[in-house]
Specification:
alpha+beta, Arc Repressor Mutant, subunit A, 5-stranded mixed sheet, 3-stranded antiparallel sheet, globular, Winged helix-turn-helix domain-containing protein
Length: about 400
């Protein structure tokens, strides 16, 4: 049960399994490797799900995800949150759907009469959006928990598996009957408890390289006893291995796939990762293993924000070195770097600090340019930076390109 790698080596393995070092052949294969891509509605810059895919597929465009939905190689459902999932995993979504059909609760208490009416209309008319339903008490008060009855019914039918998302229209879900969306060849056999647990474990370890019980069951209630038992069985069979870590003053058993090998090289590259990126979404793991204390401040009152509303974690080579608050000024086609915060203790090289920063800035500019184009911006502007040397280097780069 000895830890076979250092924290830095685990990060390298994590990066490799996350598809950051070698782009996979296609978007469906990438989503299958990641196991899910979280969907988020914040749009101060390009939305999270597109950004996560763009970070791993250099030529990615939003139409590729539309095509994958149209080709039915991916589908929408709930992972630990709303997500795009590989269609091969459809049968494992039945585990949650059955729980809801048997009385489990998602967000709202089911209103069965409205659900029957909504489903009957879609059955007769074809795919519909929530906005195509009306209700006599409709109000526009802007709070998601005051959804009108038809929208609640649509979501409940979707979560129970009676409806699927056929596509999105300007980010609005377009719902249709499951039997009209799901490909005929897809296995619809509900998994047993053991099969479902094995699926979660194998998907997580394949996507991340390693993890403990809490991380594997992330935001999934009531699965701890089942997962714990299944992890022990898989270890006993030799399918996975384990080690004990006590670096955070408490002992945790971590599991990993013993067949994995470390990447041979890490490029001099910067990744501007999304706050909802699969690599960083579990903040405690990020802090414990990779020494990066990160919090998205979208939900923090403005007066209490330290780094900005939508700060992207900055990964350079095999270490996190800071964050940058970004906003797309779409009217002026300009990407605003509202607050670039470099964490010096992770960046500086005692022997040649200036040269180290030059290598970093070169890679950072390439990443910013790529992200700028991805956001349909023609230029970028640095507004604030806590490192004067890096700020001068970036401002010089802007002047040279103008």
């Amino acid at each position: 049960m000895t830890n076979p790698y250092s924290a830095k080596q685990w990060l390298q393995l994590n990066m490799q399994q996350q598809g950051l070092l070698q782009p996979l052949a296609s978007l469906p294969k990438l989503i299958q490797q990641l196991s899910y891509v979280q969907i988020d509605s914040i749009n101060v810059v390009e939305r999270a799900h597109h950004h996560v895919l763009h970070s791993r597929l250099p030529e990615y465009s939003a139409t590729m995800l539309d095509d994958a939905m149209s080709d039915k190689t991916v589908f929408e459902y709930w992972s630990h949150a709303a997500a795009y999932l590989p269609i091969e995993d459809y049968r494992f979504s039945l585990y949650r759907k059955q729980q809801l059909q048997q009385g489990g609760k998602h967000w709202f208490e089911p209103e069965h009469k409205v659900m029957r009416e909504v489903k009957a209309r879609i059955s007769a008319e074809g795919p519909l959006k929530a906005s195509q339903f009306t209700h006599e008490s409709d109000t526009k008060n802007g709070t998601w928990w005051d959804w009108k009855p038809a929208k609640k019914a649509l979501e409940q039918l979707f979560m129970q598996g009676e409806l699927m998302v056929a596509r999105r229209d300007k980010f609005q879900k377009v719902y249709d009957l499951t039997e009209r969306v799901l490909p005929k060849h897809i296995d619809t056999t509900a998994p047993s408890d053991t099969e479902f647990a094995q699926h979660l474990i194998q998907r997580y370890l394949s996507a991340h390289g390693f993890g403990n019980l809490q991380q594997i069951q992330y935001l999934r209630k009531g699965l701890k006893p089942l997962l714990s038992k299944t992890l022990a069985q898989l270890c006993e069979q030799g399918d996975i291995a384990s080690f004990t870590d006590s670096s955070a003053n408490t002992q945790h058993v971590y599991f990993y796939q013993p067949t994995l090998t470390l990447p041979t090289a890490i490029p001099n590259k910067v990744w501007l990762l999304n706050p909802f990126d699969n690599l960083v979404i579990q903040r405690q793991k990020l802090r414990q293993w990779f020494g990066f204390d990160y919090q998205i401040e979208v939900y923090v009152p403005e007066a209490k924000r330290q780094f900005g509303y939508y700060s992207l974690p900055i990964l350079w080579r095999d270490g996190f070195v800071g964050r940058v608050d970004v906003k797309a000024d779409r009217k002026n086609h300009c990407l605003l770097l509202q607050n670039l915060h470099i964490e010096m203790q992770t960046l500086t090289n005692q022997h040649d600090e200036l040269n180290d920063k030059a290598h970093f800035v070169s890679a950072l500019i390439e990443a910013i340019n790529h992200y700028c184009t991805f956001n349909n911006c023609q230029r970028w502007q640095l507004i604030q930076c806590n490192d004067k040397t890096i700020a001068k280097m970036l401002l010089k780069a802007i002047q040279q390109s103008s």
